[in-house]
Amino acid sequence: MEIHYPGVRSPVQEQRARWERKRACTAQELLETERRYQEQLGLVTTYFLGILKAKGTLRPPERQALFGSWELIYGASQELLPYLEEGCWGQGLEGFCRHLELYNQFAANSERSQTTLQEQLKKNKGFRRFVRLQESRPEFGGLQLQDLLPLPLQRLQQYENLVVALAENTGPNSPDHQQLTWAARLISETAQRVHTIGQKQKNDQHLRRVQALLSGRQAKGLTSGRWFLRQGWLLVVPPHGEPRPRMFFLFTDVLLMAKPRPPLHLLQSGTFTCKALYPMAQCQLSRVFGHSGGPCGGLLSLSFPHEKLLLMSTDQEELSRWYHSLTWAIR
Prior knowledge:
By secondary structure, the protein is of the alpha+beta class.
């Protein structure tokens, strides 16, 4: 039987008090950061979107490509903030979750947005002058438009951290426990989808860059549908003769070995020609030497059904990174 003394709280009461303090701190942080977030959304809406619409400096398709669902996201924040100010966190976040698809759309458009911004700054003199003028306003604190455009995606990550913490520190008997738990799950799922979209966009950028480095008929479509892991120079050690430097591109399913085009090649200088494509599912990898982490580099052995590769590097750390990446691709 637990004895309670006057003025002394039990361990259960202490735990509940800690949860309540964390919940109050998290709710306050959510409120304060939402106010700042809405202010920044409003500044871009007023000084960029609104004026661009009025002046016609950008055509509607270009304006849509640049800002995507920005105004709708601003509207969602305007709906949420009053609930947070009144302490109705569960009700406010439950309603906010109806707008989460806007963040998926914004993420899917983010690469197009940055491309449109750079293109318009380069070729549209009126737009370039307008952007520089607006960026100089004291309200933006020295931030440029390209710094402000990722703001909704950054805020989504904050939503996930804060709402999950709020739900975790809300007791099951609280009237908004179910709403907060549901909102935390939906926001986390949306953040994960947005992360996946971002990863795919980065991978597509890598694939386009690698494809541009490869020349010749054999190179066409080599990177299509693949996931890029790493690239770099390694020395190929033949059975006889001196090691030869080759550029390697590692994807999740294949290792591509390429040879540089001659520097004097008029049309394709600086590019590579594909010499071999090795399926990683059939690869057996081992370290011949270079386990100790010393300064003398190392040697990797890659065995395939019809060929064996010995790859060398004088940089031990670089060789270790290749070993881990190759191991990951094989698995």
